[in-house]
Amino acid sequence: MNAPAIIKKAADWAVPYWTRGPAGRETPPDLFRVLYYGWLVALTLKLLGSAWDVSWHFKWLRDDLAPPHLLNSAGTAVALGLTIVHGYTGYGVDKAALRLIQWGTGVFLVAVPLDLINHRVNGLDITSWSPSHIMLYLGTFFMIAGVIRGWFTGAPPGRERTVLLGAFLAFFLENVHFPEQHQEYGVLSIGAWDNHATYAEPILLRFAADQMGRPVDRAMMTAFSLPVPDALYPVYAVVVGLGVLVAARMLIGRFGAATLVAAAYVGFRTLIWPLLTVAGFPPSAVPFFLVVGGLCVDLAFAVRHPVLRALVGSVGVTAAVYGALAAQSALMGHVYGAIKGQSGLLGAPPLATGSAIWAGAGLLAAWLAFEWWGGRAGRQPIEARVIATATP
């Protein structure tokens, strides 16, 4: 079958569904699957573009039409199309999921021109933690959160629901961890400089040095490669990265869920690393410690109920507080230890061990928030609560 015939067949199938309706309307199962597999395509394109993007910017002077940006833009175009379909037809989403997707897509689209203006005014944006970049991550954050909610509440129970839910959560983890890649690329770039080699092209180094008003030396390389405090990397990884894995374990509701979501993201980073380096792009440190964190999350969920019953019976304090306190202490210690071990073996950003207290406090707050949310949603297993808006 040729391309025009395929397009005509797809149009004939889709046109009857193009009717205006409120969010939450009953969605035919085949249409529901097409919409969310479309999101899988959109997020995959954005993932491939973002995976290439940081490496590109550690080698070449910035270009608005750089291939990674075009690849990411293709994914954004698909996402925008799906957002319009959801908003017009009301198919495949409830009101909350639709609002998350619409706001996320809107914030992302507003952030794009702001980021271009920022680069026009300020030249190189030396850090991935800048306000315009954070807006891009925030828009994607809400967008994927809406997709997760839509799939979670609408997909019928079964293996497909579990697998795609895990995939969407892995995309979510990639998005929140994305700014940390600046330090993961940066630490290896400094190591290369110390070994009398550079990954960046001379034009990029010269431009960055001129913008900083200093020669191309190690101080300039450090300011370019590690422009944020050392404490930010481990604290953010523990609070935000592990927070996503806790949410993944609660949503999927099975032992191994957090480990597999972390392993999916880390596995992708491990796969893309040699492909980029063979093509001449800089390497990065891979956050293998997230897999350790995911395993600790799964173990914490596996043991927390009998332990909490014993603690509550003897002391009489809230189970959630004990669970969160025990879990965050174990998780924080293992992740900080894993980062330290990885630093000596495979490379990792500098570890400010004194930041552990802030990481622990943040993870405790996140864990308690998830416990509160889980208790508010109901005491039955979370994976059993499926809203049948997309089932026959």
Automatic annotation (TrEMBL):
<feature type="transmembrane region" description="Helical">
    <location>
        <begin position="351"/>
        <end position="370"/>
    </location>
</feature>
<keyword id="KW-0472">Membrane</keyword>
<feature type="transmembrane region" description="Helical">
    <location>
        <begin position="70"/>
        <end position="89"/>
    </location>
</feature>
<keyword id="KW-0812">Transmembrane</keyword>
<feature type="transmembrane region" description="Helical">
    <location>
        <begin position="255"/>
        <end position="273"/>
    </location>
</feature>
<feature type="transmembrane region" description="Helical">
    <location>
        <begin position="134"/>
        <end position="152"/>
    </location>
</feature>
<feature type="transmembrane region" description="Helical">
    <location>
        <begin position="231"/>
        <end position="248"/>
    </location>
</feature>
<keyword id="KW-1133">Transmembrane helix</keyword>
<feature type="transmembrane region" description="Helical">
    <location>
        <begin position="285"/>
        <end position="303"/>
    </location>
</feature>
<protein>
    <recommendedName>
        <fullName>DUF2029 domain-containing protein</fullName>
    </recommendedName>
</protein>
<feature type="transmembrane region" description="Helical">
    <location>
        <begin position="161"/>
        <end position="178"/>
    </location>
</feature>
<feature type="transmembrane region" description="Helical">
    <location>
        <begin position="310"/>
        <end position="331"/>
    </location>
</feature>
<feature type="transmembrane region" description="Helical">
    <location>
        <begin position="34"/>
        <end position="58"/>
    </location>
</feature>
<feature type="transmembrane region" description="Helical">
    <location>
        <begin position="96"/>
        <end position="114"/>
    </location>
</feature>
